[in-house]
């Protein structure tokens, strides 16, 4: 009779590896706890060694100065829509360039990502009083009543916005009014620029 085959034993993870994983997890947990707690409003909880606004030896803001706001955008910030005036005088909505299809080389072409920066560069130097405020009609109607306020030069290396460009910044619809989305229009500000490339 032949001996029965034995099942191979699974090798146990080395003790040093397990200890390293536990240590790394604990360090990341402590770092996350201090980072999140430093951005909370003043409260009675004080972490060991944490510096208050008055005194103390350590502040996580020296290590992570940007905080979590760096990664987020306020949901109450106005939504910016972009339009181009056609030769016929009508306004055409300029959709952001696609980033996830084959025409954008499946995100390898960064032109779509640069369009937001291009919009910001064009509008950054424009004073707030140049925006026409409080229009409650459609974006095209708001832009139709807005005259070009100035001519700006598009200095980006590969410009996508040239000619007469309209910007409409509309406040987002509050969640409480979501069921009235079709009948409620939030106020908008509009701006028209002549953009030279």
TrEMBL record:
<dbReference type="Pfam" id="PF17418">
    <property type="entry name" value="SdpA"/>
</dbReference>
<protein>
    <submittedName>
        <fullName>SdpA family antimicrobial peptide system protein</fullName>
    </submittedName>
</protein>
<dbReference type="InterPro" id="IPR023902">
    <property type="entry name" value="Sporulation_SdpA"/>
</dbReference>
């Amino acid at each position: 009779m032949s001996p029965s085959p034995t099942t191979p034993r699974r090798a146990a993870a080395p003790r040093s590896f397990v200890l390293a994983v536990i240590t790394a997890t604990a360090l990341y947990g402590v770092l996350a706890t201090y980072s999140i707690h430093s951005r909370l409003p003043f409260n009675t909880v004080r972490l060991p060694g944490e510096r208050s606004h008055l005194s103390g030896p350590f502040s996580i803001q020296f290590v992570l100065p940007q905080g979590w706001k760096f990664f987020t955008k306020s949901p109450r910030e106005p939504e910016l829509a972009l339009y181009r005036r056609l030769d016929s005088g009508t306004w055409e909505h300029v959709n952001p360039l696609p980033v996830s299809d084959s025409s954008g080389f499946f995100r390898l072409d960064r032109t779509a990502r640069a369009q937001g920066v291009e919009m910001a560069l064009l509008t950054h130097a424009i004073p707030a009083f140049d925006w026409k405020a409080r229009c409650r009609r459609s974006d095209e109607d708001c832009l139709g009543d807005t005259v070009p306020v100035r001519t700006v030069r598009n200095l980006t290396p590969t410009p996508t916005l040239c000619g007469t460009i309209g910007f409409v910044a509309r406040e987002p619809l509050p969640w409480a009014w979501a069921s009235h989305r079709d009948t409620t229009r939030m106020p908008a500000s509009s701006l028209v620029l002549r953009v030279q490339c």
